[in-house]
Amino acid sequence: MSIRSLSPLDRWLVEAQRGLDTVFGNPPAQRPNPAGDTPDVALDDAEQRHAAGLMRINHVGEVCAQGLYFGQAAVARDPETRAHLLDAAQEETDHLAWCADRLRELDSRPSLFNPVWYAGSYALGALAGLRGDGWSLGFVVETEHQVEAHLDEHLESLPPADLRSREILTVMKADEARHAEHAQHAGARVLPTPIPSLMAGASKLMKAVAYRL
To answer: Which CATH number fits domain 40-210: 1.20.1260.10, 1.10.569.10, 3.40.50.20, 3.30.1330.10?
Structure first.
C-alpha cells in the first residue's frame, strides 16, 4: 500500500487542526496524571486563587510550547529534528492536559488570551526553524531552561497544602530538563546574547497577564 504524500493544503489543515485542538479542544494525555491519588486538600479562598493563577500560567506555558514545537517542526529540514520536536510536543500535550485538569479542580479556567499566545508562539517557532535546525534546537534549549526556572519559582510559591499541583509541576520540570538535554545533544546552537533576554521579558509579560486573565 502506497502512502499518500501531503499537499501544501493538507499540511496547512493539519497545522490548523493542531492549533484548534490546543486552544479550544481538550487533547488527552498519554501518561497518567502525576497527581494520581494525591489528596486534594481544601484551600482557603486566597490560596485557591493563587494556586489557580499559577496553574493558569503553566497552562499558558504549555499552549506556547505546543505553538513553538509545531511551528518549528513545520519548517524543520531534518526528519530527525522534526521527529524530536513532535515527540517533545506530545509530552507537552500531557502537561497541557494535566494543567487543565488541575484548573478545573480549582474551579478556574484557562487564559482568555490562549489563541493569541498560541499564534504568537507558532510564528516565533516557525521563524526560529527557518533560521536552521541548529538555531531551532537552540531555541528549545533556552525555552526549556527558562521554563525550568519559573517552575522552580512556582514550586516555592504554591500553597504548602496544594500537593496535587506540586506533583504535576515536579514531573513537568523533569520533562523540561530532558527536552533541553536532548535538544543540546541533537546539535543545538547557542543563541546570541540579546535573544534570551528578550525571551525572558516576553515571558514575564505573559505570566503577569495569564495569572489574572
So the answer is: 1.20.1260.10
C-alpha separations of 195 from 30, 128, 201, 202 in Å: 33, 11, 10, 11
How many residues does the structure list for the chain?
Answer: 213
Specify the 3-state DSSP secondary structure of 107.
coil
* Cell (9 digits) for 193: 546574547
Instruction: Name the residue ranges covered by the structural domains of the chain.
Output: 40-210
DSSP-assigned letter for residue 2: P
Q: b/e map of 153-176 (b: 16 or more CB within 10 Å)?
A: ebeeebbebbebbbbbbebbbebb
Q: Which residues of 136-150 are buried (b: 16+ CB within 10 A; e: fewer)?
A: bbbbbbbbbebbbeb
| Amino acid (one-letter) located at 153 | E
What single-letter DSSP state applies at residue 76? -
CA distance 99 to 112: 15
Q: 25 pLDDT exceeds 80?
A: no
Q: Which residue has the cell 529540514?
A: 77
Q: Which residues contact 5 (CB under 8 A, 6 or more apart)?
A: none
pLDDT for the residue 91: 87
pLDDT at 1 over 70: no
Backbone angles phi, psi at 123, to 5 degrees: -60, -40
**pTM assigned to the model:** 0.91
Check residue 12 and give its pLDDT.
Answer: 77
Other residues' Cβ atoms within 10 Å of the Cβ of residue 196: 18
